[in-house]
Amino acid sequence: MNSPAPRAPMSLGRHAAGVSLLLIAVSVLALLTLLPTRGSAGIQLPFLEEFESSTVVAFAGFSGCSSVCPTSLALMSEAYRDLDPRARERVGLLFINILRNDPRGLEDKYAQAFHPDFLTYTVDSQEADTIYDTLSLESFDQPQRASSHTGFIYVFGREQNTWRIERVFRRTPSGTQLLSILRDLAGNNGRPS
């Protein structure tokens, strides 16, 4: 009776690489299902009601952040400045302070140092869960804990009275990418062409 020839064992390196790729794929898929996507269903977030514009570009961070916040806010204000005046009337800038009930009250000065048209919104306890879930944010009570927050830039568009998340930049976009999307949305009353 002939036994099958023994198979050579898979090398440890190939096995580890295969497992790593599988874990990366599962992680990416899990992350993509949690994050809002372009053209999502209508959303209701309290800070969007403050805007008369048809497009809002927003960033969630905290005053005093010295890492991703300044880069993102500078990029947003640069793209905003580069819009023609008529388009700028249809675009709002928003800085969302992710520190719950931040007693420091510095968010206005912080955001407006990048551009005077920035509106700010500090998340309070009553609406925190809705905001954090909708935007896939983490909740923070202390600035030192918030230092690892996401660096997402959100672009919201409004059609009639319904706001939608049109785009989420999970990595800092180039200025021309953001400007192009803002021009497109501002020229089309909040909806991409």
3D structure, described in words:
- The protein is an alpha/beta fold.
- It has a single domain (46-187), classed as Glutaredoxin (3-Layer(aba) Sandwich).
- The chain is built from 7 helices and 5 strands.
- The protein has helices spanning 12-34, 68-82, 85-88, 107-112, 128-135, 143-146, 175-187; strands at 55-61, 91-97, 118-122, 153-159, 162-169.
- A 5-stranded mixed β-sheet has the order 3-2-1-4-5.
- Helix 2 (68-82) crosses helix 7.
- The longest helix has 23 residues, at 12-34.
- The termini are far apart.
Task: Give short descriptive properties of this protein.
193 residues, alpha/beta, Glutaredoxin, 5 strands, 38% helix
Strand order of the largest sheet: 3-2-1-4-5
> Treating each run of at least 4 consecutive H or I residues as one helix, how many helices?
7
> How much helical structure, as a percent, in the residues?
25-40%
Mean pLDDT: 76
